[in-house]
Specification:
Elements: H1 5-10, H2 20-55, E1 62-65, E2 70-76, E3 80-84, E4 90-94, E5 98-101
Antiparallel strand pairs: 1-2, 1-5, 2-3, 3-4
């Protein structure tokens, strides 16, 4: 059976009975670091990217809302957008509900 050296160190029996607390503390710290690296850090990066994208929106940009509505921005305020979805339909949405900005360049379309 193959084991990792770190696992052997963390599961080693305590010398003198007082080292068990140190092993548990190290395991808890390692678990927290793993959760931070795999879950919290990427989520914060994505939130920052989304915030910057929302701040850069301009009149005429084509967007897709989180509900899947595709439209072109015709009016902007601090917290709301008015989008045109077709020739006659206009919707007012909250800025935070913009899912993504549709880009016209070749790489973002996956072709």
């Amino acid at each position: 059976m193959t084991t990792f050296p770190v696992t052997g160190l963390l599961m080693a029996p305590a010398e003198g009975g007082g080292g068990g607390l140190m092993v548990i503390l190290i395991q808890i710290i390692l678990i927290f670091l793993i959760f931070y690296w795999l879950l919290i850090r990427p989520q914060r990066k994505e939130q920052e990217r989304h915030r910057q994208m929302i701040e850069r929106l301009q009149k005429g940009d084509e967007i897709i809302t989180v509900g899947g509505v595709v439209g072109t921005i015709v009016h902007l305020t601090e917290d709301r957008l008015t989008i045109r979805t077709d020739e006659k339909t206009r919707l007012v949405i909250d800025r935070s509900k913009v899912g993504q900005k549709v880009e016209d360049d070749f790489e973002t379309r996956g072709n």
